[in-house]
Amino acid sequence: MTSRPLFKVALAGLVLLVALGVVWWRGSAGSDDAGPSLPVAAIPSVPTASAGNGATGEPPPAARAGPREEIPMPGCWDGLAVLDRSATMESLHAAVAAAIQARDTALVAYLQERLTELVGNDPDRALQLVAWAVNAAPPEPAIYLEALKASPAVRHPRVTEKLVSVAEDKTLATPDRASALDALETQHRFTPETRGRLKAIAMDDSADSAAWTATRTLGRVMKEDYERTGTYAPYWKDLLDIGTTSDDSAVRLLALEMPSYSDPLLDSDSIDALAKVMRTDKDRDVREMAAFRLAVTEDPQKALAAYRAAFDGEHDLCVRWAFLRFAVRAAGADALPLVEEFARKDPRLRQDYLDFKALYATGTTDFARIWMGKKEHHDCVVEEGAPH
């Protein structure tokens, strides 16, 4: 019963301290040592927000009398209140440029959110953001395209088409192309044509980071479409092609990783392609990711055969350990004979076999619980998305 009075006393003390801090802050801001004006103050005919609601003749909050206890807040950016009340695309565009010049990242983030609100579901305003992004210097393109990404208008067919066209434009800087691809990640689905165009970017050796972002965008829209409609196969076919044929190991790795965020059951035909990756890819991380991807399949026995076929030709302990643990994930206790076989061929895996055998002997069948009880015996970095 004593906690409420103590809370009120503490709150009153906090209010007093904040009020004193505000007085000090305002006094400092008005002194000769004050820093440069905040960026929105550079916009013509915009009164100061920190002076209260001057446009309406209302006194500042500190001068109002009333029974309500309010924690006083420091003054905001000069002119922001008026800018908010009459915001247009052009005025926010000018404010973003001023905020960037002042290196005010907090204000830039706020203006980006206001642009998203103002664009809403209007494709013409959305296309205006794209036009600004194409013609601006960094960091403006990323700001405008991130604002667009969060708006419903990004899914309008005209806007989607424009973003894909920007992403394909090799005359643009690679980061700007990547930002356009990133803005497409909030699509609900991709048409076959759009998927094909993004796949072409992902497979382009000269696209650098745009290739990686195109791959991620395909994967994230796959997740969205899968959760909405259960559709994943067309996206996965594209990602599997990228994961098995791209010359960039980072792109291959990401392509095989993307289904991890929705974990659809892979069809039997996918096993053959992943089995080849496990046997032939020159990058250890990609071989491990293929093993991980193979663990969630509608045909566990075929997956076990793929792990067995890849094991003898693999000499990296960490990849062999990946084959073993993901075989267990794929088939549960049915994988124990194969795990014992692996342990005979490579004694370094003997304790892993004994651990899994003992854990399944307790009657536990859920792999997540089995994995929680499994001790680590190898100094291997486990890939992102793995059950570790």
Question: What descriptive keywords fit this protein?
Answer:
mainly alpha, disordered N terminus, 62% helix, 388 residues, 19 helices, disordered C terminus, HEAT repeat domain-containing protein, elongated
Description:
The structure is a single chain. By secondary structure, this protein is mainly alpha-helical. Among the domains are: about 80-185; about 265-385, no CATH class. Helix content is about 60%, strand content about 0%. The chain has helices at about 5-30, 80-85, 90-100, 105-120, 125-135, 140-150, 155-170, 175-185, 190-200, 210-230, 235-245, 250-255, 270-280, 285-295, 300-310, 315-330, 335-345, 350-360, 365-370. Helix 5 (about 125-135) packs antiparallel against helix 6, helix 5 (about 125-135) packs parallel to helix 7 (about 155-170) and helix 15 runs antiparallel to helix 16. The longest helix is centred in the N-terminal third of the chain and has 27 residues, at about 5-30. The radius of gyration is 29 Å and the shape is elongated. It starts with a helix and ends in a 16-residue tail after the last helix. Residues about 1-55 and about 385-388 have low confidence and may be disordered.
What is the structure about, briefly put?
The chain is mainly α. The chain has helices at residues 3-29, 80-85, 89-101, 105-119, 123-135, 140-149, 157-168, 174-183, 192-202, 209-229, 233-245, 249-257, 268-280, 284-294, 300-311, 317-331, 336-345, 350-361, 367-372. The protein is 62% helix and 0% strand.
